[in-house]
Amino acid sequence: MTTPPSRNPIKKLRISDIRGIAQLATQATAGVTRIAEDVHRSVWNTTGLPGGSNVSGENRGITGLVYKSVHDVALLVGKGVDAVLGWLQPLLESDDAKLGTPAREALLAALNGVMGDRLVASSNPFAIPMTLRYRCEALNWQALPSMPEATGKVLVLIHGLCMNDLQRHAQHVGHGVDHGEALELALGYTPVYLRYNSGLHTSQNGRELSGQLEQLVTHWPTPIEELTVVAHSMGGLLIRSACHYANREAFRWPDHLENIVFLGTPHHGAPLERAGNWVDVILGSTPYTAPFAKLGQLRSAGITDLRYGHVLDEDWRSRDRFRREPDNRQVVPLPEGVACHTVAATTAAKRSTLANHLVGDGLVPLHNALGQHNDGRRNLAFAKNSQWISYRTTHTELLSSPEVTRQIVQWLRA
């Protein structure tokens, strides 16, 4: 009699997973303790009674001692657990355990998108390093795998916020759709997929992507004739950032860059993040709700960069990213000498004033994905024949639309 496979997810956890969970639990305990202490202090201070908090804003007396003890014990236990698991990790992790399932990688991608900057700051093993991947394996520039089928036409595909490269293969009415595979079959491209921590600042990822592309053109097994990028959502901001920093560093890879196709890119920011910023302002407006503003401020730097579409360090450096401010980002035009195309989606059946400005694809308004802006300096100059609208399509369905694939092929074939 065959024993059915275990459905207990705990048995499939790696030691590094447990370390990551332990670190998150420790940080969550400390964070909740600080919020509770802030609420306590705010209520106490509004009563006008003496003996509340000291000059530094911390609770005094027995109350302060209790909060400090909970915070310190949580950190102490967390460090001890992490040290023990770190010692056991190389002893207990088998080769099979190191193979990531699509479900696990999707969960990690979402976690990184929401709080990836915090994961990096705390050296959490859940933090995703940036890699270029070929045939589902990360490319090691010092020891490239055998790549006899690699061509001189390289296609780099970049995912969006909270996603990863394994989600490139989507389903459309029961059939698989993969823009990379389709372009490989139709036009002879060799697809390479980027995986990155989408919770970091866009400019940080853009600079690192620029370095990765420089490594690619240096170590690719055959001379590169053409480099083309297809970028979904946030990925479009990354490649614009990468182009900027490549020119600043005088890298060689932009010399090979011929095409960029943007799919649903929020060129000028995402309305949902601007709404989230208003929540920060509202929660911070009273002493009773101000402590809870910290919950909203757990969202990553990558998400807050989407407020206006930041792509450079200067857009966020030396600023409070949760403060309500106007759009002061640097003007970054499309890269010169590159054929740039943009696909916008709308859930509407046809174009109208409402569809253009309000409907969009559920996340990005139509005019935004087309690069249009009321400020002429910020308006991205896509040629008319390089703009295409996919109707009755959501933001994520851009990855599973055969019509989008056909339009990309048409552009690149021309």
3D structure, described in words:
The protein is of the alpha/beta class and 414 residues long. The chain folds into 2 domains: 11-99; 131-270 and 328-413, 3-Layer(aba) Sandwich (Rossmann fold), CATH 3.40.50.1820. The protein has 12 helices and 10 strands. The protein has an 8-stranded mixed sheet with strand order 2-1-6-3-7-8-9-10, with helices on both faces. It has a two-stranded antiparallel sheet with strand order 4-5. Helix 4 (179-187) packs parallel to helix 12 (402-413) and helix 5 (202-219) packs across helix 6 (234-249). The chain is globular and about 50 Å long. Residues 1-11, 51-57, 59-63, 73-78, 94-98, 278-286 and 288-293 have low confidence and may be disordered.
N to C succession of SSEs: HHHEEEEEHEHEHEHHHEHHEH
Task: Give, in spatial order, the strands making up the sheet with the most strands.
Answer: 2-1-6-3-7-8-9-10
The percentage helix is 40-55%
Question: What percent of residues are in strands?
Answer: 5-15%
The number of helices is 12
Low-confidence stretches: 1-11, 51-57, 59-63, 73-78, 94-98, 278-286, 288-293
CATH top level assignment of the largest domain: Alpha Beta
Helix vs. strand class: alpha/beta
Number of domains: 2
| Beta strands, count | 10
Instruction: Identify the CATH architecture of the largest domain.
Output: 3-Layer(aba) Sandwich
CATH superfamily of the largest domain: Alpha/Beta hydrolase fold, catalytic domain
Average pLDDT metric: 79
